[in-house]
Design goal:
Two copies of one chain form a homodimer. By secondary structure, chain A is α/β, with parallel strands linked by helices. The first copy, chain A, has nine helices and 16 strands. The first copy, chain A, has two domains: about 140 residues, Rossmann fold, CATH 3.40.50.720; about 180 residues, Dihydrodipicolinate Reductase, domain 2.
Amino acid sequence: MKKTPNVAILGATGAVGVEVLKTLERRNFPVRELTLLASGRSEGKTMEFRGRKLTVKAVTPSSFAGVDLAIFSAGATRSREFAPHAVKAGAIVVDNSSAFRMDPAVPLVVPEVNGADLLRHQGIVANPNCTAAILCVPLWPLHRAAKIRRIVVSTYQSASGAGAKAMAELESQTRDVLDGKPAKKEVFPHQIAFNVFSHNTKVAENGFNEEENKVIEETRKMFHEPELAICVTCIRVPVLRAHSESVVIETERELTPDEAREILSRAPGVKVVDDSARNYFPMPIEAGGIGEVLVGRLRKDPSSLRGLAMFVAGDQLLKGAALNAVQIAEMLLQR
Amino acid sequence: MKKTPNVAILGATGAVGVEVLKTLERRNFPVRELTLLASGRSEGKTMEFRGRKLTVKAVTPSSFAGVDLAIFSAGATRSREFAPHAVKAGAIVVDNSSAFRMDPAVPLVVPEVNGADLLRHQGIVANPNCTAAILCVPLWPLHRAAKIRRIVVSTYQSASGAGAKAMAELESQTRDVLDGKPAKKEVFPHQIAFNVFSHNTKVAENGFNEEENKVIEETRKMFHEPELAICVTCIRVPVLRAHSESVVIETERELTPDEAREILSRAPGVKVVDDSARNYFPMPIEAGGIGEVLVGRLRKDPSSLRGLAMFVAGDQLLKGAALNAVQIAEMLLQR
């Protein structure tokens, strides 16, 4: 890729798109020309990048002429429709949707985990599901050290995972409930204010919902462990933008909490927050807005032979989406 | 016990005490005279029971003269102080606090699980920790059917577990955060509005906090399984009054989801809410105010040989406290 590429963002006005723009700016990503693309509804909106006002254009098949790098975050349907046009125009697509993640020809990458997989891309690189990405960052160094045999994870997922409208719904519903009014449901099928519910994706034949199956399949793909044993329960909680995860692993070699803490304190993309004396551990309000995945509550799981329990929190919009996409783009630039 | 006992409630004005009063009324529990007791701070407050206004008295060692049944929900310190006086006065104490739960001489009872243990009481019966009670109701019939070997549970605990003030703090903090003001922390050590955090109890030597160790030890005691393997992570979520739990079990005999669903549909105190087609599963807003523990998301855990995953929600103030205490009292009346 050119050292200073022409960049396009598809879905620029969405919750993730906004964060992609901010992340490119914050990380001084070299950009020659930036094209902001979205559906017709957002055409004509303006957004700021490095002090310049840019106008959002409606995406068409010919939007990608001259584009070197296209970051897609407009959902799987749009990705399937427009990625082939972008690739044909010569762009590399970093896709935030689920459209291509399990395609064997498409690398699915968290740079800290399997950056080397980028080398074999054929025009499209997939950005993983947010819950999978946040899970993999702290688990990968533990897997390298002691080989993880089994993962049991229960999530505490924020509204941001369902987009900007879902975040607004959490706020407006909360106001309504506090005022004694009924909670208006538009984005989520169930009340999100002062409630938790099983993730709002279709439940598959195996009893797991789509979100859970993504976590299982994508973690296996990134770890290059097609048989890795994973049980996951995805739950929405009334939090705005960071996901938390309660994780129990079993390893082939025993890993003490101290050893795990030591490994994690050196691991890229991870911040250990594990202060039992002060009862201070990872929390979504502190994970929001930062790039690192917080990990703590590291303790021996007494219920299995070589078990380790922990609690994790990571920004769904950053490491779970925009930041990881920009990190992928940075690796593409270097190679 | 007399067929129509004199009843005292200690901690009558607290979140649980209020529910004990309502539950006695709702379930037509026979009461000759009701004495409402609390700390000096609540002295003189009035509360209604069966259309009569009752005045709350400050508890003293002599408050229990003539009392046949005393339901305590004023914390472990007060239980340790006043239970001996109540027992000496001839009352049976049903204690909601942790003070006597692990005392080998004190039965710890969820009627649906180990009601028979009541027979050996010596004046005090302990009501379990709310999270343990809610967990045990659906797991006990599965344990009886297939012998549970291991439990991995992550909780989504409501503010009510920390009392009425904590519920008020969740509401006031939420208003403040929505208005862009800082969240005032008085009850909880961390912001509860739009956040989740590790349960605010002291972390013990084994890395588990007090709440988690209660779940482990009390479940073992009620199940009469002193070695039962349990890993638990207790997390607070911004929900007002019902606890939810993501549970994965391993059983000695294989239990299919269908068989588990069938067993649970006949189990006392349980309501199966498990409609994958409608994406409708247990939620705390629906578990609040009802006596049954909701259970659903029943599915095979593919990560272990004989694993089963599920999601549970139960009213922390009812089955987790007041209702269970009144059910214990009802069993005492019958015996």
